[in-house]
Amino acid sequence: MDHPYLYRKQYQIGKTGSTDVIEKYFHLITQNKNEEIAIADIGSGPGNFTHDVLITLFKNPIRKIVGIDISESMVKFANSTYGNEKLSFEVFNVENEVPKQYISFFDYVFSFFTYHWIKNQRQLFLNINQMMKPNGQMLFSFVAQSILFDIYQLVWRRPEYAPYISDVYAGQPCFQKSKEPMKELQTIIENAGFKLGMIKMEKVDIRNLSLNDFKEFIISVNPYYDKMPYHLKEKFILDHLEHVPRDAEVEGPNNYYLKFNMFVVYAKKK
Ligand SMILES: C[S@@+](CC[C@H](N)C(=O)[O-])C[C@H]1O[C@@H](n2cnc3c(N)ncnc32)[C@H](O)[C@@H]1O
């Protein structure tokens, strides 16, 4: 996940979990227009969404908006492209202990297309709860289940790639095989000290993708592309593409498609 340019370029896939979610659900967020506020965007990636969309949504004066990301290269890119006095990006693994300066700091916590990376979901939501002020609000989306993670399993277990794959489950949502993902997530969120306002499972279906769109998208989100030796890189990506479904009703090469189930949640800290 260290390719900020490619991730930003393949925004037509990423926007389904960010811009589209904001368009449909931002109305759930309440604003008290007189207060100065602090906002977090967890898993801010290249920072374009934090800068181009999130900042523009608030009527309140913004004291601080912080993009948080585990990837140093994403944070470096985001700071040099979008950073300013109020908007900054920081390297932080949201599964780890919350830095002191962020305890009870944020009024709003957003996150788009990131939490499927987090294995310990209980710890994740306890940490977010710690970061928020009482009555703080959060809105987030993440992938619950996707064919892409089954494709990862098929390719990553091949003997030629095995020496470079340290964890075959990396990046796989812990709800991928769950029979009742909504119920499980709801329990985790409520037990972490939140009052749930909305939980949904959206079915996303992105059509008419070209081979190149998919190639760039997989390179930008696949944690092992960079770990492959040079002579295996191209084959590694093409082996993924071999399993991506194609729409027989669309003529021409741009008929790759991607379907997945995505959580969308709005909740308040109690
Ligand atoms: C798919 S990108 C999403 C970028 C942006 N939110 C968007 O929707 O366009 C996911 C981001 O989550 C970050 N990430 C993954 N695990 C993380 C963790 N444990 N803590 C913080 N960030 C993490 C990755 O480095 C990556 O930049």
Automatic annotation (TrEMBL):
Coiled coil feature spans: none
CDD domains (alphabetical): AdoMet_MTases
Methyltransferase type domain segment(s): 41-140
Record organism: Aquatica leii
Listed Pfam families: Methyltransf_11
GO-annotated molecular function: S-adenosylmethionine-dependent methyltransferase activity
Superkingdom to which the source organism belongs: Eukaryota
Name of the protein in question: Methyltransferase type 11 domain-containing protein
